[in-house]
């Protein structure tokens, strides 16, 4: 292995670490990062993480989180409506209900449906704006240290020194992958 590879690995890890924690660094060293932070620091930041303050500049993330399901609903509703009224014969085999059957069963007008959906989405938006906050966890090292503190006794007790050596990987996977996956599954 060339002697420049460890330096590059160290430099890249330092750059990623400082990008994730919004700290400034010297280009060639990470002297201002403590050994404890290095142990629990995100050497490989996941693809989904962004250190930007907002996903879209000038628009708070809470508004995007509340508006995106509504925009997706109306976009897809219009796509299916256009397919429904298009009259294309090749789409007939994909219908769930025949047109005559659908006309007999749909006793509510489209205007009534649009009004009910709009009311429901207005209520959803009000609750969403109240529920979603701008509070962000910016100190990833502290949160990862808490997770590492939880896992350290378990790993060292049951796996010994090898478990202690695996602590940074277990902490990293738990913080960046398992907790978000559990949150996503719970939200569904």
Structural description of this entry:
The protein is mainly alpha-helical. It folds into two domains: 4-52 and 136-187, no CATH class; 61-131, no CATH class. It is built from seven helices and no strands. Mean pLDDT is 76; it is low at 1-42.
**Count of domain modules:** 2
The overall pLDDT average reads: 76
Q: Rg, please? A: 26 Å
pLDDT < 50 stretches: 1-42
In percent terms, what proportion of residues is strand? under 5%
Q: What's the N-to-C terminus distance?
A: 47 Å
The sequence of SSEs as H and E is HHHHHHH
* Helical run tally: 7
Instruction: Categorize the overall geometry.
Output: elongated
By DSSP, the count of extended strands is 0
Largest sheet: none
Portion of residues in helices? Answer: 55-70%
Q: Structural class of the secondary elements?
A: mainly alpha
């Amino acid at each position: 292995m060339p002697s420049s590879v460890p330096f590059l690995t160290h430099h890249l890890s330092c750059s990623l670490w400082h990008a994730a924690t919004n700290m400034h660094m010297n280009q060639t060293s990470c002297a201002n990062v403590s050994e404890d932070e290095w142990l629990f620091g995100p050497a490989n930041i996941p693809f989904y993480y962004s250190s930007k303050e907002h996903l879209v500049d000038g628009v708070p993330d809470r508004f995007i989180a509340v508006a995106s399901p509504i925009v997706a609903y109306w976009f897809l509703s219009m796509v299916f409506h256009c397919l429904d009224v298009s009259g294309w014969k090749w789409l007939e085999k994909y219908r769930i209900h025949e047109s005559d059957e659908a006309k007999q069963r749909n006793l509510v007008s489209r205007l009534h449906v649009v009004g009910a959906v709009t009311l429901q989405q207005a209520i959803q938006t009000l609750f969403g704006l109240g529920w979603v906050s701008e509070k962000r966890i910016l100190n990833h090292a502290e949160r990862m240290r808490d997770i590492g503190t939880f896992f350290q006794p378990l790993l060292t007790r049951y796996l010994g020194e090898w478990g202690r050596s695996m602590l940074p990987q277990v902490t990293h996977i738990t913080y960046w992958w398992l907790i978000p996956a559990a949150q996503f599954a719970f939200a569904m």
